[in-house]
Amino acid sequence: MGRNYADVLPDECWRLIFSRLDHHQQLETLSTVCKRFLSISNQLRYSFKVLSDPAPYALSQIFKRFPCLNKIDASELNRGLDALIQQISQSGLNIESLNLSNQVKVPVFSVSKLLSLKTLICSRIGLLNDEDLIVIAGSLPWLEELDISYPEGIDSHHQLYFLGGLSKDLTSFSYSSTAVTDAGVEALSSKLKNLLKINLSGNHFISDRSLTALSSNCFLLREIMVRSCSFITQFGISYMIQHSHNLTSLSVDTIELCNSSLPSSFDFQRSSLCAIEFFYMGIPDDLFHSIVEAGIQLKKLTLSYCEKFTFSGIKVLLSTSGQSLEYIDLEGSKILTDESMKELSQLLSNVTTIKIRGCSSLTTSTFFMLAKNCPLLQELDMSSTNLGKEENFHAGDVGMNSTRIHSLKMSRNNFVNDDTLKRIGLVCRKLQLVEMSCCNGVTSRGIREFLNRFPRMRHFEVNQCGEIENVFDATKGEVVGLNLEVLRAKRSHINDEALSRIGKRCTRLVNLDLEGCMKVTTKGVKEVVVNCRELREMNLRGCSNVNIVDIYDWMVLSNRSFSLRKLVPPHCFLPKEYDKNKEPVPWNLQSLSIGSCHKIV
Question: pLDDT value at position 257?
């Protein structure tokens, strides 16, 4: 018998090889080969997402199995958050990142026991107030990243109208016990000296005082997001730009800029900004001129649904920052045309991501122009444009196989048809992600031929595309297998026969979204679950012909081993084994967590 060279390689070499894999799910396959591969793969799992309500013993086993976990996401946990954090604190793991989003309240005293925590995400918390911030800052002064965005406990705009209107004077309001205010942010900033990144978006009771406190106390601060903050003004933003010398990224929206005070208030001379995100704002050209005069080399620029600026203004800015720019978002811009994009594209030679969603004057000509003039372009979003509308530009002008584009979003384009897909396929040979939802001009045949051009395609969305049940037919001369991992076909005409073909051709499928597919039945769901052995998540919301109880019983009683971990049922579902006398009934239940690692709820 020949020598087994796999045994000769040390674990360090195998770890290096395994770490090159694209997704941790591929490690699961390797872990079944032998005990040695199981041990090595366990050491390469660094993140874990908790689904639904895990049993304590299951969590204990998971934490023992993966000793190198440093990031835990509990944003989908229904209840038992205190128990989870207690398990984490007792596990001995060095957890550096914890996501507690979508919870009713943050158990701050339990979180304070996680002494290795550097990143805390508490977005969309039901009740978050100043006292919570004080406890967090006092017990975790070494935090580097904090997200307390969009708390949901108070409908802030309605509260403001009820209590006196949108006054700029907050002194008469006292919300410290029910919301985050300037006092809480000031206390926070005085403790978190190592803070690098903070997201305050959606906190309507903070004002420029909070920005002043952060600038004065958090000298290392690099990134700040203050979107949907009603009392933040241009003067608070300008103060932060002038006094936070390490600030590299700024994200704001709906702030009214006063033209007369722009030159004096926005002084970028000592600024380190390289990423600016403006949403739904009036941006005068003077702001661009201030950036140019300061010599700032932007890497990221977002002007989503912004107005007032002119084509000449944005051209001047890109003429200076174009060589350093890697990401540009001009979503919803009304000034862009094919002709203007022809000029701008020549200034974007190093850009890797372009978003021009909602620019209705742009056609197929812009697509091919960007493919030709932006050689490093990898991600392009042209949703809700006029892509597919023919102009005087041809695919042959770009050159065959000349683009690096691997992500293309072109949903909601009524002019996209089979010919458009064919022409795109001639230019973009490396596509891995495509979104073409609500493109009713394409046919099953056109989509099928398009898919077969891209053996590396991993993510495909055809929501609301109507007659697509024959997309996955395999006829003579076509590729038999597809490498799709994510397929979203909401409210389409996919039926059981199509699911059977999907199960045979897309065996690597991980996520399948069939929401609103009325022709899908229990039989088709069972077949795709059996054939797609790597399937982890399936959405059946609104599939009224699927009997979820039948599927549940079949999976529990079957001798097969299923990979499915999350199943969103057609409607609210309660397994018959659920003991309503011991626990409260989860009437808002939207999903099932299935598998040995998680308790079925």
Answer: 82
